[in-house]
Amino acid sequence: MGTWTEWVLRYRKTVVLFWLVLTALGGALAGRTVDALGFEFALPGQPGYEANREILQRFGTGGPYDPLVLTVTVPPDRSLREPQTQQEFSAVVERARAALPGARVLAYPGTDDPALLADGGRTTFALVYPRPVPGPDPYARALSVLESVTGGATVAGAPAQVTGIEALTTATDGSDRGVLVEVLLGAGGALVVLALVFASLLAGVPLLVATVSILTSFLCLLGLTTVTEVSFVVQYLVALIGLGVAIDYALLIVMRWREERVHGAENVDAVRAAMLTAGRSVVFSGVTVAVSLAALIVVPVPFMRGIGYGGLLIPLLSVAVATTLLPVLLARLGPRLEWPRRAPRDPRSARWARIATAVTRRPVLAATAATILLLALAAPVLTLRLGSPAVGSYPTGDAAGRANATLADAGVPPGALRPVEVLSTDPDAVVQRLSDLPGVAAVLAPTGADWQVADSTLVQAWTAADPASSAGVATVDRIRSAVADIPGTRVGGSAAEDIDLVSALYDSAPIVLSVIVVLTLLLLARALRSVVLPIKALLLNVVSIGAAYGVTVLIWQHGWLTQVLFGTEPSGAITAWVPIAVFAFLFGLSMDYELFILARMREEYDRHRSTTRAVVDGISYTGRLVTSASLILFLAFVALSTVPTVEVRILATALALGIAIDAVVVRGVLAPALVTLLDRANWWLPAPLARLLRTAPEQRTEPEPVSTIHR
Q1: For 387, which of 78, 319, 468, 631 could close a Cys bridge (C-beta 3.0–4.6 Å)?
Q2: Rounded-to-integer distance, Cα 124 and Cα 249, Å
Q3: What is the Cα–Cα distance from 96 to 110, expressed in whole angstroms?
Q4: Residue 304: Cβ-neighbour burial (10 angstroms; 0-12, 13-18, 19+)
Q5: What's the confidence (pLDDT) of residue 229?
Q6: Is 504 exposed, middle or buried (0-12, 13-18, 19+ CB in 10 A)?
Q7: What average pLDDT does the segment 197-217 reach?
Q8: pLDDT mean over 140-150
């Protein structure tokens, strides 16, 4: 690190010019990067996904896209079995069919199936499968067309209404707010925190580092989109996690530079000392975060690999900027940026020193209390349900929500809004197998060109329970098993693909976890010259992430404060890909703080060989830093939680909770308590592992900071 710093300071102009060019290009091409991101959630090789691809190829509609639902409920004294009301509803359906060329429609009385009537014949509904368009909203045009066609239309004096999963999702997602707004929200919160930390122009330096890191990441992301599919979710992760991580790294180095200056070092010497200590921690932290995100690349799901590739850019580029551009800025402008001048501030935090002292005096009590709290927060994970939101979980304040509630009240099974589509060359055999199958509310085999192509016919099966519920999932599995031996038969629909997504993600989870754990342990053992501290950090991370999962389940699945916090209804389930993405991101980000704290404890222990004193000194030096850094990252995730997409909201909620719980409970109480209890065992490193990692136990591997000659 010393050689690297000398090289950077020697070629200052080249370093500044290099980052200036990349930042300008990244800013100019950011719009093109966003446009190049994909919205496809492909699952190659999975049976539900392959069946849906074939349905789309043959019919041009349906498959993974649930239908829009055109419905009407006539007054109590009327019935949809009456010829007059049938004609009126048929006229509305025909107008919808004419306005949506190529749409596949299933309606009463065109299909005289009693399943399409409910509430004693007062309610009916038509399933309309428009042709999807590429992009985030496959029914963007179709939904508006259908709503305009049915607007003002009545049947027996009752209004026709439009609902369906896509209509409900569009209403829930709300406005299409761009990533720039989220970045500005996060940056605003970060600036307030930085202003309180520095009370000088130095507050702008971490934001400058973050700006360069984010725009350069977008430039690299554009190149990445030319070789692989990258999910639209990555733009938010790069922008807001990049904001938090880059500021964290810059904050660590700048505060250490300030500390060295307070202890009497000249400016450039203080830069060198900060890079030898904080800069080294930043490199190890960034690589640790990158390793945890790189593990997503081994998941056999393309869009998750895209998140892994994109996420990999965030810490690596943040480290690159923090260890090149930042020392140049501090060496050239650091003292001037201390304006308005004030008396040097003690780098130690008296408040955090008191907290650490209290913890070290009662380590058993502190560790026990913190552990009980974390386990209590994690307990709701036992009720975790993965999948799409329940059909009945959508808000009822808009027209689509009210229509959905009316269908439920009329007794229409939830599976009617998310039908299982069975593509078969022998539809009669499919109907026979499924008609009396437990959990199946209805089986429909429509005729006509909309439902038959060449020798293949689409049969619909509606589950009695919500397809996202455990009972609904079991019914879909029974449907698959029942028709498995019928030649030329495939089972599709969004529910089938959801089940395949969970399987694809979590069947490979042991591999992902193993990669993360092994590489992280080796990195931390090298950084901390200990085998016990990395294992402790790993266990604490697992408990911390479990607590974040638990509270997220309470909020989004069970509806605890969902309306108060987000102004929406609970989803009733956690999106399948969110937990594994949360684990990868939180594992790396939590290790950031762990490494910041433990590295300083290690440094202090090497000076005086007292574990208790090392804990107090380490916390007193890093407590303010970790609090500020975690608050900035927390605010970035709060900004992320305001985006329209429900899946991203759930992801942001878990990340924000994870950072808050980790910084306050784990790093503030549990970690120092356990280090105190383990005492000298913390610093043990077996000789064979020391040789493997090219380090040595119980001795310094870096020279003393230059500023120690001034102490």
Answers
A1: 468
A2: 59
A3: 14
A4: buried
A5: 84
A6: buried
A7: 89
A8: 89
For 155, phi then psi, to 5°, come to -130, 115
Between CA 616 and CA 605 the distance in angstroms is 11
Over residues 317-372, the pLDDT tens digits come to: 999 999 999 999 999 998 888 887 665 566 788 889 999 999 999 999 999 999 99
Average pLDDT, whole number, for the chain?
Answer: 87
Cα angle 460-466-468, degrees, rounded to a multiple of 5: 100
Residue 106 pairs in a beta bridge with 127
For residue 182, give the DSSP letter. H
User: Is residue 574 helix, strand or coil?
Assistant: strand
* Residue 45 region by backbone torsions, left for phi larger than 0, else alpha for psi between -120 and 50, else beta: left
Tally the C-alpha atoms within 13 A of residue 687's C-alpha that lie toward its C-beta.
Answer: 0
* pLDDT of 105 over the 60 cut: yes
Measure the CA angle with vertex 360, ends 359 and 361; round to 5°: 90
What is d(CA 268, CA 70) in angstroms, rounded to the nearest whole number? 71
Type of residue at 276 = L
pLDDT at 174 over 60: no
Q: Give the three-state DSSP class for 72.
A: strand
Q: What is the DSSP string of 344-405?
A: PPPSS-HHHHHHHHHHHHSHHHHHHHHHHHHHHHHGGGGG--BSSPPGGGS-SSSHHHHHHH
Q: What are the start-end ranges of the E strands in 410-562?
A: 420-424, 440-444, 452-453, 456-463, 490-492
Q: Residue 186: which of 252, 234, 255, 246 has the closest Cα?
A: 246
Residues 492 and 479: beta-carbon distance below 8 Å: no
Backbone angles phi and psi of 304, in degrees to 5? -70, -35
Q: How many CB atoms lie within 10 A of CB 514?
A: 12
CA pair distance 321, 22, nearest whole angstrom: 11
How far, in whole angstroms, is CA 512 from its chain's centroid?
16
Q: What is the DSSP letter of 38?
A: B
Return the SS3 of 54. Answer: helix
For 113, what's the count of Cα atoms within 13 Å in the CB-facing half-sphere? 16
| Coil/strand/helix, residue 342 | coil
For the record, the structure tokens of 118 come out as: 């409910």
pLDDT tens, residue by residue, 534-570: 899 889 988 999 999 999 999 998 889 888 888 777 8
Q: Could you tell me the pLDDT band of residue 167, with boundaries at 50, 70 and 90?
A: confident
Q: Hey, which of 31-45, 181-195, 419-433, 534-548 has the most confident mean pLDDT? A: 419-433
Residues near 439 by beta carbon (within 8 Å), at least 6 away in sequence: 463, 464, 465, 471, 472, 474, 475, 478
Q: Which residue has the higher pLDDT, 15 or 625?
A: 15
Residue with tokens 């993965």: 386
Structure-block tokens of residue 183:
């970045």
Q: At 440, phi and psi to the nearest 5? A: -95, 120
Please report which residue ranges of 174-279 form alpha helices under DSSP H.
179-198, 204-225, 233-236, 242-262, 267-274
Q: How buried is 80 (Cβ within 10 angstroms: 0-12 exposed, 13-18 middle, 19+ buried)?
A: buried
Residue carrying structure tokens 């590295």: 599
Task: Identify the H or E element spanning 136.
Answer: none
